[in-house]
Amino acid sequence: MELLKQRIQEEGKVLNDQVLKVDSFLNHQVDPLLMMEIGEAFRERFKHEGITKIVTLESSGISPSVTAGLAMGVKVIFARKRKSLTLTDGLATSKVYSFTKEEWSEISLSSEFLSPDDRVLIIDDFLANGQAGLGLIDIVEQTGAQVAGIGIVIEKGFQSGREILQSKGVRVESLARVQSLQNGRVTFYKETGVHA
Amino acid sequence: MELLKQRIQEEGKVLNDQVLKVDSFLNHQVDPLLMMEIGEAFRERFKHEGITKIVTLESSGISPSVTAGLAMGVKVIFARKRKSLTLTDGLATSKVYSFTKEEWSEISLSSEFLSPDDRVLIIDDFLANGQAGLGLIDIVEQTGAQVAGIGIVIEKGFQSGREILQSKGVRVESLARVQSLQNGRVTFYKETGVHA
């Protein structure tokens, strides 16, 4: 997605070889118009998958998921990172390790909102080591629903997330695939055929 | 906002006299089409305020803020509930007590995204005791920006939040004002003139 890559080049901050900060349009400040373009891009890529629900993880996954939900006309469920006091019955839960925060957290989702008839698109802001994606696949499958694909806004292609998620038999689509953050510069993979 | 009140009546769960659970369209599962109507309603109520930015609090405030941002053509900043490892410089912070969770948390916002020229609309999903709103006003004002108003999706009008926020001189607009949750039923205030 060219517009997204441009914004990453213009506004992304490369903190080191591993960390790309995009707080000005995705992770802290959100540009709703860019998010709408992102939502449309997800709709285009998954239009033949019969998606009935979107599942994401709070908080940074919510914005692109809501715009994808608008574009596709389906509801969005955001998994929570810890149990809240008003969310207790019928929870699907999984443990997820964050390499960025160096901690385990429990993610959970009310299974009442998914059924075996659902074909779920999982959306997340970043793909790095694939741990959040694995946890999301786990809780969706606990409800009996089917994971139809994973849509990622920015993939750090030099980390192992894609292989890990694809090894689960899940289709992975990224709107921007970063090849390297070396020398303070963002380079992307060529896109030819990636989303054929 | 009649459509919102209908959804609250149809899908809201009254857990007790104090707690209304709307997990099926706002706080866990999100209905993007309803969120877009909510975004348009905020645009209509604040159209003469010259809003340049929206500020909200993760996570449940993000969906209605992104659709309001779409409707109004302005960017959205979601304040974080604790410091993240990649968010360190130039933070405005405030402490907020949650009566629901019975705990203090620190909320923070990168001051680089607001300037004294900004007129900020604060949006949140619920208004109860006004503590989150006070914290959001605090961090916005720390950046020198001006709070032009507070937009609330659901106000629990039998709690003190509105008085607390109005005592700061801030205009408060709620799309649904709950008068009572007694006897397991949701009743709303009459809307006449409320958003004149």
Automatic annotation (TrEMBL), chains A, B:
Catalytic activity: XMP + diphosphate = xanthine + 5-phospho-alpha-D-ribose 1-diphosphate
UniProt-listed Enzyme Commission number(s): 2.4.2.22
Residues annotated as binding xanthine: L20, N27, K156
Keyword Metal-binding (UniProt): no
Leader sequence residues: none
Gene3D superfamilies: 3.40.50.2020
Pathway(s) per entry: Purine metabolism; XMP biosynthesis via salvage pathway; XMP from xanthine: step 1/1
Phosphoribosyltransferase domain span: 32-157
Keyword Cytoplasm: yes
CDD domains tied to this protein: PRTases_typeI (cd06223)
Annotated keywords: Cytoplasm, Glycosyltransferase, Purine salvage, Transferase
BP-aspect Gene Ontology terms: purine ribonucleoside salvage; xanthine metabolic process; XMP salvage
Alphabetical list of Pfam families matching this protein: Pribosyltran (PF00156)
Family affiliation: Belongs to the purine/pyrimidine phosphoribosyltransferase family. Xpt subfamily.
NCBIfam families the record matches: PRK09219.1, XPRTase
Protein name per the record: Xanthine phosphoribosyltransferase
Gene: xpt
